């Protein structure tokens, strides 16, 4: 069977800071190919919709699978599915991914029959079974599969992460993938899931709070297949277990792999495993993202981050002493006023790190979705990208965006424009001499992507697909209410 797998267009964040390969889709592609199908992959973060239609004409796929990790991509995928069915009735259309898993029923309803099924949870095991079951009325009895007529049992976790290493050979124009000065950049996965339970996050609810590791040998094998000099480690929290991180490091040394790495981790993990991070610095770890989230204890507690402000500050010192470039994230609450933005600006300018601001957003799949007492001001999927305010702002909305964009612009001067060239001019020029200009081009792009008028105007767009409203609970939600993958029963 001919199968086309499609990743939708970039969100605001990826218009500027980075663009990364669709690793989940590449793993699904590997599994589908191993089952004997002919597979093509199209990434609309790089190609436009015209290319999608060209690909459909040229390849004439029997099945098209969309990846919807991001809620903001839901309307785009519904429209593409509708038009695809209108042009080619017999094509089977299915959708998987992180966000699709949390909003499966409403997604199918909006599509009005243009999407044959949603595949909840991990795709490697189930995608080939779905393709086998096309035309079989028992499709909706498969684990994780939801159709307009029924839903199968909860999805099954992939037993071994070493299976189905990403089919990177299917991607085209890979030189377009980058993060900051790591240009070009590939992605890799060492572990899956997160054992913590932050209230604003759905990484843990998706995997039923499980945490799995791939073997160091498979990590080495996958890295050895990567041509790019830079690698983004996509793990939710990298190097939770020091022994695993050291074992991968040894494998990398044994294979004499030399790359530069970017990863994301928690401050307490960095404090606990600082020797490991220092070791990885020698291996090429260059850039690290720490989710600090808040500058006061009350907000940290509300996010259930399970770290203190002091630990966060200590982690920053450790990262500096190791010599790592660090980006941190702070969650801006819609209740912030001018004084609060000013305080954050002042703090952000006083530290050498790159500081990002995202807007607090209750996502389906998070505990916050079921416990947030404030009413949503919009249920337009497109605004759920942590760059827009979907909860009532204390300041008038436009004023809120002025403060947000102004704060981002001021703190960004450190690492965009001329400020960046002072720091990374040499590697940037080296990359440019090899034809890699993604990083250089982003440096002066900030105001075309992030601007008050654009963000405010996004709220005025007609809404064709509205998210189902949450049904708030006055108690802590149960596992059944939160999880996509249910943890295996303990006997
Ligand atoms: C790496 C990552 C990124 C990367 C790259 C993502 C990419 N190009 O796909 C970058 C850094 C770009 C990124 C950015 C953002 N991210 Co992000 N990201 C992640 C992260 C940590 C891991 C994703 C990943 O690669 N996992 C590994 C692969 C193997 O798994 P996977 O992609 O989930 O795929 C599996 C299944 O989902 C499924 N599947 C996937 N596609 C398909 C398709 C079919 C047909 C089938 C059958 C199955 C299937 O099978 C796959 C294999 O098992 C997730 C958290 C998480 N644990 O999922 C957050 C996450 C997806 N991101 C999130 C957010 C909020 C963002 C940003 C909006 C944040 C921001 N700062 O502005 C931006 C927007 C980016 C954009 N699209 O433009 C949220 C999503 C929220 C939501 N509900 O929409 C998440 C869940 C994090 C969180 N803590 O809440 N992100
Ligand atoms: S924010 Fe990070 S630590 Fe918290 S649950 Fe999500 S992935 Fe885990």
Q: Which secondary structure elements does this structure contain, and how are they paired or packed?
A:
Layout (H helix, E strand, L loop, with lengths): L1 E6 L4 H5 L1 E2 L3 H12 L3 E6 L5 H11 L3 E5 L6 H14 L4 E5 L1 H5 L1 H8 L5 E3 L6 H7 L12 E2 L31 E2 L6 E3 L2 E3 L9 H4 L4 E3 L2 H10 L4 E4 L8 H13 L5 E6 L1 H6 L1 H10 L1 E9 L3 H6 L6 H14 L2 E8 L5 H13 L3 E6 L7 H5 L25 H16 L4 H17 L4 H5 L3 H4 L2 H7 L20 H4 L9
Parallel strand pairs: 1-3, 1-4, 4-5, 5-6, 9-12, 12-13, 13-14, 14-15, 15-16
Antiparallel strand pairs: 2-8, 6-7, 10-11
Helix pairs in contact: 9-10, 10-12, 15-17, 17-21
Bound molecules: cobalamin and iron/sulfur cluster (SF4).
List keywords for this structure.
binds iron/sulfur cluster; binds cobalamin; 22 helices; 6-stranded parallel β-sheet; 491 residues; alpha/beta; 6-stranded mixed β-sheet
Task: Explain this structure.
The chain is α/β, with parallel strands linked by helices and 491 residues long. It is 40% helix and 15% strand. The chain has helices at 12-16, 23-34, 49-59, 74-87, 98-102, 104-111, 126-132, 203-206, 216-225, 242-254, 267-272, 274-283, 297-302, 309-322, 338-350, 367-371, 397-412, 417-433, 438-442, 446-449, 452-458, 479-482; strands at residues 2-7, 18-19, 38-43, 63-67, 92-96, 117-119, 145-146, 178-179, 186-188, 191-193, 211-213, 230-233, 260-265, 285-293, 325-332, 354-359. The strands form four sheets. Strands 3-1-4-5-6-7 form a six-stranded mixed sheet, sandwiched between helices. Helix 9 (216-225) crosses helix 10 (242-254), helix 10 (242-254) runs parallel beside helix 12 (274-283) and helix 15 (338-350) runs parallel beside helix 17 (397-412). The longest helix has 17 residues, at 417-433. The chain is globular and about 60 Å long. The mean pLDDT is 94. Bound molecules: cobalamin and iron/sulfur cluster. Iron/sulfur cluster binds next to helix 8.
